[in-house]
Amino acid sequence: MTAIGTVCQAGEGRSFSIGADRISVMGVSDTDAFSVVDYIAAPGVPGPPPHVHHANEEGFFILEGEVEFLLGDTTTVLGPGSFVHVPIGAVHTFTNVGSGPARWVGIFAPGRYLQMVEELGAVIPADGPPDLAAVVAVLARWQTDPAPAP
User: Which sign, positive or negative, has the C-alpha torsion 88, 36, 14, 45?
Assistant: First the structure.
């Protein structure tokens, strides 16, 4: 049996919003090893509260803009060409601190954790505050906990 794989041209991925941000799904591996998104973060909108994943890892490769990233107890401003690996158990969050949109390639491992982001998109509106109880419920289903900022 020969593996086929996936090809996704620019603009072809299915898209959804999470608050004011826009996510385009570029691919999910057939084996659930990873998923890849093109993430566009709106300026002036805070990112998620600090949180920790207990069953998935994430990667962020910054393409455009300035992203303030908290990883553990260290906060760094990242620009194009920067990469962050978030291992299981690491407190993290991000915020677009630039004056325009920030864009990155996001990687989730295992790939099914993309569904958590899609579920969050369903409970975080673009035009108002999220239902915090609904957000916490989504996070709990995906073995993710809010964490205090350092």
Answer: positive
Dihedral angle, C-alpha 107, 50, 45, 96, nearest 10 °: -50
Give the CA radius of gyration of the chain.
15
Q: Indicate the average pLDDT of the chain.
A: 91
Domains of the chain and any CATH numbers: 15-143 (2.60.120.10)
Q: Is the dihedral of CA 103, 124, 120, 87 positive or negative?
A: positive
Could you report the per-residue pLDDT of 3-27, keeping only the tens digit for each?
A: 677 888 888 888 999 989 999 999 8
For 96-107, what is each residue's pLDDT tens digit?
A: 999 999 999 999
The arrangement of strands across the sheet holding 15-18 comes to 15-18, 21-28, 35-41, 102-109, 57-64, 83-86
- Sequence length of the chain is 150
What is the separation, in whole angstroms, between the first and last Cα of the chain?
Answer: 50
Confidence of residue 72 (pLDDT cuts 50, 70, 90): very high
Per-residue b or e along 69-88, where b marks 16 or more CB atoms closer than 10 Å to that residue's CB: bbbeeeeeebeeebebebee
In the numeric block, which tokens belong to residue 127?
């035009």
